[in-house]
Specification:
alpha+beta; Alpha-Beta Plaits; Dna Ligase, domain 1; 3 domains; six-stranded mixed beta sheet; four-stranded mixed beta sheet; 20 strands; 34% helix; globular; UmuC domain-containing protein; DNA_pol_Y-fam_lit_finger_sf
Length: 565
C-alpha cells in the first residue's frame, strides 16, 4: 500500500451548517410552526422538513403524495421562490462574517459557511494565563481588548471526537489541541449569538481543514457541534490517528470532494475486487486498505478524458483526511446577477412576454437588494443610527452592471434522442443596460415592465423571429459587467464589534443582503453536497426538460419527472 500523504494541520477551520434551513426560515416567520411537522415543497418533492416532521417519518426527496400519506397533519409550504431564503442566507452570512478577522469566510450554497479563524485563535492562545485557564477571555477586537467573551480554557466546549476528551492539563500553544480547544469556544459563542440575535440554530464542526470540519460537524446534529481532536497522524507516541479512526467507517460517497461520479467508479472497482463488500456500502477503510491502493491505482480507476489532473493523488489525500483547499476569500461585489425559470411548454409570445416581465421584476429587485447600501450604515457616526427612522433611510448603488443578457433554451422536438439533444444549447443576446433601471424612486414593478417593453422584447426577437416556430424550456435574464461606483466594502481585520452590536440593536438586525455570486462558493466538483439548493451554484442541465439543476438536487428533480408520468 502506498504511503500516507503528508499532513498540514496549521490552520483552524470552523464549518457552520444551519439546521433545517428552508424550514427554519418559515419557522422564524411563524414560530408556531416549530412545534408542528413542517415540510417545504418544490415541484412535487419535499426538499426539506423540520425535525418534528422527521420524527413522524418524513424525509428529504420524498414525494409530497407519500409525505401526506405518512403524516396527514403535516404543514406543507411552497418553497419555489428562493428570494426569502437567499435574503436570510446572506444576512446570516454577513452576521457570522462580522466576527472574523481577515477575508477567509466562504459561503457554500444557502446554508453552509466555512471560516478560517487561524489568526484569531493564534492571537488568543498567546493571551492565555496558564495559571488560571478557567477564567480566560476571548478577544474579538484587535483594537479593543474589552470586546469579547469569557470562557474556560481548561476544557473543550461541546462534544468531541473521540468522546470524553474534554480537559487539558498542560497546554502548549504550539500544539493543535490548544488551538482547537479555543476554536470550540468561539464556535459555541457564534452559534449562541446566531440564535440570540437572529433566531436560527446551526451545527458546527471544528478541525484543521474544510474537509474534516464539514464531516465532523455531522456527528452531533442539530444545534450542536463537534471538535475533531488530535492526534491527526499516527506516531510512535500515539499509535493511532483520530482522523483515520473517524473517517474509516464512513462511506466513500459521504466525503466532500469525491463526487457521485467518482464515488461510483471507486465503489464499482472495490465491489469487483472484494466480493465481501456490497457495492453500495463501500467505506473509506475498504478503499484505503484495498490491495495495491494508492495514487497510481486511483489514477487508473478515475482518470481518463476530462478527468482533473492528478485526480489519483487528490483522492488519495481525501481518503486520509488531507485537504489543502483554502477557505475562499469573501468578495463584496458580484460578477453577475441571473434570474431563470424553466417551463414545460412555452411557444407563444404573449406568454413569453409575461414571463419576461416576471423575470425582469425579480431581477431589478435582486439588484436593489444585492447592489445597494444605506447611507446610514456606511456614513453615520457610532450611535446615530438609532436617531434615524428606518423609513427615512436612503440607499445608494454600490455597483452598476453595464450589460443586460437574455438567454433561452429551446425544447427538442418529440422523438429527439439523447445524442441529438446536445445540439439544443442555450442562445443569448446582450445589450447595454438602460440607466433608468438605477432610479431608486421608481417602483420595481414599473421598471420590470419597462425593461421588457423597451429592451428585452427586441432582444428576444433577435433570438426567435416573429413568424418562426419555437418552443422554449428555459428563460434567463441577467445583468453582467459590474462596475463599482460607491462605498468601501473591504472587510477589515479587527473591525469595530461594539459599533456592530449597537447597529444590530437599533436597526433590528437589518443588513442589506449581498448577492450569492459575491459570496465565494466552491466549485461543484469539489463541494457538491450542500443540504439546500442555491440556483446560482454551478448546475447541470436536466436531459428531460433542460432546467439547470444543482448536482445535489438532481435526484429530487428526476423523482419529480417520474411522478408526472
Amino acid at each position: 500500500m502506498a504511503t500516507a500523504p503528508l499532513r498540514d494541520d496549521q490552520r483552524i477551520v470552523i464549518h457552520f451548517d444551519y439546521d433545517c434551513f428552508y424550514a427554519s426560515v418559515f419557522e422564524a416567520e411563524q414560530p408556531i410552526l416549530k412545534s408542528l411537522p413542517l415540510a417545504v415543497q418544490q415541484k412535487q418533492i419535499v426538499v426539506t422538513c423540520n425535525y418534528e416532521a422527521r420524527r413522524r417519518g418524513l424525509h428529504k426527496l420524498q414525494l409530497i403524495k407519500e409525505a401526506k400519506q405518512i403524516c396527514p397533519d403535516a404543514v406543507i409550504v411552497l418553497g419555489e421562490d428562493l428570494t426569502k431564503f437567499r435574503d436570510v442566507s446572506k444576512d446570516l452570512y454577513l452576521f457570522l462574517r462580522s466576527f472574523v478577522w481577515g477575508e477567509r469566510v466562504e459561503k457554500l450554497g444557502l446554508d453552509e459557511v466555512f471560516m478560517d479563524v487561524t489568526d484569531m485563535i493564534t492571537y488568543n492562545a498567546a493571551l492565555l494565563n496558564h495559571s488560571d485557564l478557567a477564567h480566560s477571555f476571548f478577544q474579538l477586537n484587535l483594537q479593543d481588548p474589552t470586546v469579547g467573551f469569557a470562557f474556560d480554557a481548561s476544557r473543550i466546549y461541546g462534544p468531541t471526537y473521540p468522546d470524553g476528551a474534554g480537559d487539558m492539563t498542560e497546554p502548549d500553544a504550539s500544539q493543535p489541541y490548544l488551538k482547537l480547544l479555543i476554536a470550540s469556544h468561539l464556535a459555541g459563542y457564534l452559534r449562541n449569538q446566531l440564535e440570540e440575535q437572529r433566531g436560527y440554530t446551526a451545527t458546527a464542526g471544528i478541525s484543521t481543514s474544510k474537509l474534516l470540519a464539514k464531516v465532523v460537524g455531522t456527528v452531533h446534529k442539530p444545534d450542536s457541534q463537534t471538535t475533531l481532536l488530535p492526534p491527526y497522524a499516527a506516531t510512535r507516541e500515539h499509535g493511532e490517528s483520530n482522523v483515520l479512526n473517524f473517517l474509516d467507517s464512513r462511506e466513500i460517497r459521504a466525503i466532500p470532494g469525491i463526487g457521485s461520479k467518482l464515488s461510483r467508479k471507486i465503489m464499482s472497482y472495490i465491489a469487483t475486487t472484494n466480493h465481501d463488500v456490497a457495492e453500495d456500502k463501500v467505506t473509506i477503510r475498504d478503499v484505503r486498505l484495498s490491495p495495491g491502493m494508492g495514487p497510481s491505482l486511483l489514477e487508473k480507476i478515475l482518470g481518463g478524458p476530462g478527468a482533473p489532473r492528478d485526480i489519483g493523488m487528490k483522492v488519495w489525500g481525501l481518503l486520509h483526511g488531507v485537504d489543502n483547499t483554502q477557505v475562499g476569500e469573501a468578495r463584496d461585489l458580484p460578477t453577475q446577477i441571473s434570474i431563470e425559470n424553466s417551463y414545460g411548454h412555452l411557444d407563444n409570445f404573449e406568454t413569453v412576454r409575461k414571463e419576461m416581465v416576471s423575470l425582469a421584476t425579480r431581477l431589478v429587485r435582486r439588484m436593489r437588494t444585492d447592489l445597494t447600501e444605506s447611507y446610514d450604515d456606511a456614513e453615520a457616526p457610532t450611535g446615530s443610527a438609532s436617531q434615524i427612522p428606518r423609513s427615512e433611510t436612503k440607499f445608494r448603488w454600490l455597483a452598476r452592471p453595464r450589460t443586460l443578457r437574455l438567454s433561452t433554451l429551446p425544447r427538442p422536438a418529440p422523438g429527439t434522442n439523447h445524442a441529438q439533444m446536445r445540439g439544443y444549447s442555450r442562445i443569448s443576446n446582450s445589450a447595454p443596460l438602460p440607466q433608468y433601471v438605477f432610479n431608486l424612486d421608481e417602483s420595481v414593478d414599473a421598471l420590470g415592465e419597462r425593461l421588457v417593453r423597451e429592451s428585452a422584447t427586441s432582444m428576444f426577437r433577435k433570438l426567435h423571429r416573429e413568424r418562426s416556430v419555437w418552443n422554449l424550456r428555459v428563460l434567463n435574464l441577467a445583468v453582467t459587467n459590474m462596475v463599482e461606483v460607491a462605498g468601501d466594502r473591504k472587510h477589515n481585520s479587527g473591525r469595530d464589534i461594539g459599533k456592530m452590536f449597537l447597529q444590530r440593536e437599533t436597526q433590528h438586525g437589518h443588513i442589506p443582503p449581498e448577492t450569492d455570486e459575491n459570496l465565494t462558493i466552491a466549485p461543484a466538483a469539489s463541494w457538491e453536497d450542500s443540504d439546500e439548493e442555491d440556483t446560482d451554484m454551478p448546475c447541470i442541465p436536466c436531459p428531460i426538460c433542460g432546467a439547470r439543476i444543482p448536482h445535489f438536487a438532481l435526484v429530487a428533480h428526476e423523482l419529480y419527472h417520474s411522478s408526472c408520468e
